[in-house]
Amino acid sequence: MAKKIPEPTKAPQSRAFLVGVEFRGEQTILPLEESLEELALLAKTAGLEVVGELTQRLDHPNPETYIGAGKVEELQMLVEETLAEVVIFDSELSPRHLRELEERLGPNVQVSDRTALILEIFAQHASTREGILQVELAQYEYRLPRLTRAWTHLARQAGGGGGRTGSTGGVGLRGPGETQLEVDRREIRKRISNLKAELEKVREHRQRYRAQRKRNQVPVVALVGYTNAGKSTLLNTLARSEVYVANQLFATLDPTTRRVDLPGSHTVLFTDTVGFIQKLPTQLVAAFRATLEEISEADLLVHVVDITHPSAQAQWQSVMATLEEIGAGSIPVLTVFNKIDRLKDPSVLEAASAAIGNTLPISGLTGQGLPDFVRTLETMLYETLTPVHVHLPYQQGQLISMFHEHGQISRVEHVRGGVQIQGFIPGRMLTRFQPFQVKKKPEAEESEE
After folding, report:
1. Which of 160, 175, 262, 311 has its CA 20 to 30 A from that of 121?
2. Could you give the angle at the alpha carbon of 126 between the alpha carbons of 338 and 333, nearest 5°?
3. Where is it located (predicted)?
């Protein structure tokens, strides 16, 4: 029976052994050694004691055990020597890999992977109903294809919500010829369906809330960045609030929104979002759709980068790739290099600024650089005018009025079903007009006309 990873406050801690594999020719954000360091921090966040690690470079995964047969034997010996209770791979393992490795390492050793570890951390940290539902859904979708035994242990583990998950049972009436495993899978699929329905209600509630904010014309700035980059500290300083801050990964799961009054008599809503990470599980991206929409619906993204991290540029690249993946790639971005109060070598800042461009150095903790940051933010939201060409249906009367009131109109053309407007609008309103933008025709078509 699989053992649950204990809560961080429980003692003694389970002993974890880490395994990292690098495949030749594979494009990764972090090199193997740094990726394992990140995995070790994840394990620590989950309340585990890391007792050793093993690495291997391969052309491709072993179809049975992921790592080579010789490395499996070496792993067996190291696990025995270190008395490790759980082995965690720095990549997502297939159901077959998990099964084969557990058979070779024995019944007293749990085999896990990065995805399961991140899901466990999320389960420990989720506090709101939305967060708990999202984590529970992600756990079930991850574990369903890996289910090889009775569901009782799984029902107790999933969701981080105590006994609620197990309330669906896991013990159902068997149909003709059904095995207990088939019954368990059917129960889990039913629970997944129920969770998706509940999360859809959450999504609809968020959409109504966002629509209200847009009617009030209060711009929303989403703080995004790699986990532990200092987003919550920055929000606390800007809003003089007390959002939970901890020097650990995924300290913030549920989005937190705070009102901030800017010097130019403008009001902005800042939203602190969950930190990104390399190899972010696809189950989490899907399950946290309602939360991630807070990012994709924002008027401006402030990308917070921990400039003191040795892989700061790689982390920046990882976050930008994830933003594209969730449909937020077209939103204006202001990149800030955070924690400059702890930066010992100024040349690091210069090199990163040259590589990324259009950045500001700040310290969310001490407030250094924040006056320039706030001025730049205000300019991007209220003073920078962006050229747009939109086709607005007559039903979108509010947007038509908004363009006339806040924008600069160059051309108006009434067409069937609506009005086409060309002109300039403030940066804070860009996302509201993006769904109605007129796509530019290819040059070949324009020349034919």
Report:
1. 311
2. 30
3. Cytoplasm
